[in-house]
Amino acid sequence: MLTATGELPAKANTEPQLAIALIVAGIVFLASFFGILTRPVGFLAAVWPANAILLGMMVRNPAFATPLGWLAAFVGYIAADLSTGGNFFVTLWLTIANMTGALTGYLLFRLAPESDRWLQRPASVLHLFAICCAVALAASIAGGGAARLLFGRDFFHGLTFWFITELVNSLIILPVLLTFPGFRKLRELWPAKLSPALLQHALPMLVLAASVALAIMLGGPGALAMPIPALLWCSLTYRTFTTSVLTMLLCTWLLISIPANFIPLPELPDPLRSLDSLRLGIALMALCPLTVASINAARTELIERLSHAANHDSLTGALSRGAFIDRSETCLRINQDRGTSLLMLDIDHFKNVNDRFGHAGGDAMLKEFVVLVSHVLRPADLFGRMGGEEFAVVLPGLDMIAATSVAERIRQALEARAIKMPTGGEVWATVSIGVATRAPGGWTSFDEVMLAADRALYEAKDAGRNMVRVGAQQAYAAAPTLN
């Protein structure tokens, strides 16, 4: 309902903000509570995910980064510490330090290129490391003085301890949030069933788990480095997000197990400084697989772009002639036991468009035609540009009647569409289409099917254009014609 001034009531605007605030406060509370549970007696938490999770939320969802959202995070920190018996003054001090680090990181990420926010370039990991260092420095300066109250150390020791702890937590948690592809994409990538190929793909993970078990059995300082080769193998095999998750799980386990003596290590005279050294080593270890995964992702993207450029027409985005023929021949072999149809399409009087509107007008028509055809086709269909204004479509699994219906829908879609020219004005175009079908067990040569469709196309041209003609079929007594 609108108010007398024509504005929505305030409630309609505040409800989403309150929902966001509750989400932020709840997530920060749960993350802080988990961190408190990992806190050894007399120390800060061994794992403190709340700051990195808060920063990741704000970077991935700018709508959360409102004054109310930051206030909700502040309340979440306070509530978690007080609910576990924390002193109010110390809790307030630690919360201010946590918020200082998260705000610093958010401001720096806003200055970074978008590709660096998602770790899409090799240099992105270096930028991430620099931002994490700045976050850790800001938080440690704000909270280092609390070391005297917590475990009787001076400001310098508190600053060092906080800096290293904040750095390692940021480096192992932030990449997971920054590279998270979304739940829908995860469902698409999740395998539907087990297979030998899937088990082979999981081999790096299994080796990583085995190396962790070996580290527990052997113990000693070298145990920390035993999982690194397997982790690097994972970074060469999996996506950046998967590598980030595996790195986070391994480093989190190390951060928890070392203070709890799950991994036997030699006794050192100063436990706090020893813990600083171990956490710094874990932070630097987390950089290695992230860097490799980022480089591998950039290389894979480059290969995909080059492959797309080699196999697709640069103007229209349809398959190039060579790629279309190669994939069509493969499609015919795969669908040997069921019908497969081929359409040959030629835009009528295309030369007149070029003569009247220039090559820019002809290019605009070709692009619009490809868009129209793509809307009619299925994802499994193949669509290629054979040259000039001539295109071809392979329809796997469709018989002659179904393929003719598809061709007629394409013809009607173009006939009903006015195509705008770059120089102004509109053009109404038509298309002639030839159809040929390979019945189950029929032709095995793609050239034979294409020749039949090509002949049908020229029949449509000779009969007056803007129509569909069906070529000779195997296993069909007569070929119907649609005008």
From TrEMBL:
The lineage of its organism: Bacteria, Pseudomonadati, Pseudomonadota, Alphaproteobacteria, Hyphomicrobiales. Its EC number is 2.7.7.65. Gene3D superfamilies: 3.30.70.270. Residues 338-473 form the GGDEF domain. The chain crosses the membrane at residues 18-36, 64-80, 87-108, 128-151, 163-183, 203-224, 236-258, 278-298. The gene is ydaM_3. One of its GO terms (cellular component) is plasma membrane. It catalyses: 2 GTP = 3',3'-c-di-GMP + 2 diphosphate. InterPro entries: Diguanylate_Cyclase, GGDEF_dom, Nucleotide_cyclase, Rev_trsase/Diguanyl_cyclase. This is diguanylate cyclase. PROSITE patterns: GGDEF.
